User: Which sequence fits this backbone?
């Protein structure tokens, strides 16, 4: 066994960890970046997450209708693979070219609070470090449904993204981010898609009217949506898998597909890390327990990104790195409790983005409210949506009637994933609803919808 002694060891090449590694190395720290797979330099987002999915969504929306769906998909998958290969190389080089960084391709586990053993094939390396950052991400959940693990036709998002062949008939299990994004995208590539969601509606954290509109859009795009569907088994039958489920009335039904995508959530990845050897605690969901500075139960060990049980977004992992960097090199004042108005965006077509509270959440606060709900098709002063041939969707704003404070905005509309950032910035910096209403925006843009939206607030 060979030894390496460093100031900082990062386990996992995720967004927070790699950014921290680079920042610390630029300050002269000796850093070890340990990544288990040479297919994962740069982490989930660029290899098997945000980047490949959004590249496919883009090509699904913009491909020539004259090219058959399977061929359009093959081309899109190939260019996506080229893109992720490029980014993987750039990410590797970003760290490997720094003098004080050693990138180690191997699987890390704790031997004691300051020591990691890293296995790569028959080789074992011992890494000792003053500071350790766990950035190991999350893995798809596969609940114990009979046949789910055994079926040769059930795939995770990672496995489906690795294929260049488009499914003919895709059954999607789940009603969250991955389920809706893949259902929308594969339908746009011409696959027959059935989405089975357990809850009474998709996207459980959004308002009823938003979900109804999103479901209408998905259905209009050719997705068969079944809610209240409890999957009871999966069985292979020749070229197809038969998914058995009970509907909301308890009636037994089946859905058939050549491919079944399990999109049932992602669980923090701690398996094999031997956190117990370092006295690092996990919670009931398997997430590493951290305080608001992202310190684990060992104060010199931090956990960033999906593994700490926080919101599973790349930009949250990135913000985690800012907190740890401040703790290591600054005043240690930055914490997770500073976060306000963190937006989210789900990339169906058109995208669904939100920042702040839903109307239902705002009502539960008991504050006096003004609410504006506008269908994009009715917003005559927002021609951008029609210019790009997509006037689908709706926008909502929820405002405190007494203070004019923006409590939340939801946008299911063209470019919502971009436009929502303007509201997030406004909310963080105390810009009021009236100011948003009277602001000057470029034309024709989706942002100018705020002139209309905030002019239509009514007591709720
Ligand atoms: C299909 C899909 C689409 C998504 N789309 C979006 C999106 O559009 N926008 C968005 O913000 N978020 C999106 N997400 C979520 C986002 O990808 C994650 O929140 C983010 O990538 C998590 O990053 P992380 O820093 O936690 O670590 P990750 O990027 O997950 O990196 C963890 C790394 O640790 C490595 N590792 C694990 N165990 C070990 C070990 N023992 N030793 C060494 N290495 C190890 C893994 O191989 C991996 O490379 C998506 C996720 C998925 C699955
Ligand atoms: N655009 C984005 O930012 C983006 C895109 C994809 C993923 N992500 C991140 O990755 C995370 C994981 O995505 P996801 O879609 O897998 O998770 P999710 O939490 O968004 O959705 C999981 C779905 O599975 C259902 N479910 C869970 N257990 C079940 C069971 N036993 N039986 C039936 N249904 C069950 C839930 O009701 C829910 O509908 C997301 O929460 C999100 O943070 C983000």
Assistant:
């Amino acid at each position: 066994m060979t030894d390496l002694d460093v100031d900082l060891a990062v386990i996992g090449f995720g967004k927070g960890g790699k950014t921290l590694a680079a920042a610390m190395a630029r300050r002269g720290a000796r850093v070890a970046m340990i990544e288990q797979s040479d297919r994962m330099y740069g982490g989930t987002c660029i290899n098997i997450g945000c980047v490949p999915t959004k590249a496919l969504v883009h090509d699904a929306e913009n491909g020539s209708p004259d090219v058959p769906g399977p061929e359009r998909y093959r081309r899109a998958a190939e260019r996506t693979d080229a893109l992720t290969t490029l980014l993987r190389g750039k990410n590797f080089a970003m760290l490997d070219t720094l003098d004080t960084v050693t990138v180690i391709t191997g699987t890390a586990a704790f031997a004691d609070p300051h020591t990691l053993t890293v296995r790569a094939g028959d080789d074992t390396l011992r890494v000792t470090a003053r500071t350790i950052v766990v950035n190991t991400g999350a893995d798809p959940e596969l609940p114990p449904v009979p046949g789910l693990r055994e079926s040769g036709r059930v795939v995770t998002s990672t496995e489906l993204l690795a294929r260049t062949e488009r499914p003919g008939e895709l059954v999607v299990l789940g009603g969250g981010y991955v389920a809706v994004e893949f259902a929308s995208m594969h339908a746009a590539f011409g696959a027959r898609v059935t989405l089975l969601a357990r809850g009474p509606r998709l996207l459980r954290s959004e308002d009823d009217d938003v979900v109804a509109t999103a479901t209408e859009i998905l259905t209009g795009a050719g997705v068969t949506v079944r809610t209240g569907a409890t999957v009871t088994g999966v069985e292979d039958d020749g070229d197809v898998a038969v998914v058995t489920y009970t509907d909301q009335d308890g009636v037994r039904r089946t859905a058939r597909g050549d491919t079944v995508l399990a999109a049932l959530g992602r669980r923090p990845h701690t398996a094999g890390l031997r956190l117990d050897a370092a006295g690092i605690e996990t919670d009931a969901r398997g997430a590493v327990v951290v305080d608001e500075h992202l310190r684990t139960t060992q104060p010199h060990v931090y956990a960033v990104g999906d593994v700490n049980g926080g919101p599973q977004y790349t930009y949250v992992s990135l913000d985690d790195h800012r907190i740890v960097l401040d703790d290591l090199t600054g005043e240690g004042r930055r914490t997770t409790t500073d976060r306000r108005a963190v937006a989210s965006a789900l990339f169906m077509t058109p995208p669904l983005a939100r920042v702040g509270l839903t109307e239902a959440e705002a009502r539960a606060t008991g504050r006096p409210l003004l609410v504006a709900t506008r269908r994009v098709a009715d917003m005559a002063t927002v021609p951008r949506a029609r210019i790009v041939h997509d006037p689908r969707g709706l926008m909502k704003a929820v405002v405190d009637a007494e203070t004019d404070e923006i409590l939340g905005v939801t946008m299911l509309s063209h470019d919502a994933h971009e436009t929502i950032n303007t509201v997030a910035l406004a909310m963080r910096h105390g810009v009021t609803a009236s100011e948003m209403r009277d602001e000057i925006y470029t034309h024709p843009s989706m942002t100018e919808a705020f002139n209309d939206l905030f002019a239509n607030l009514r007591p709720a």
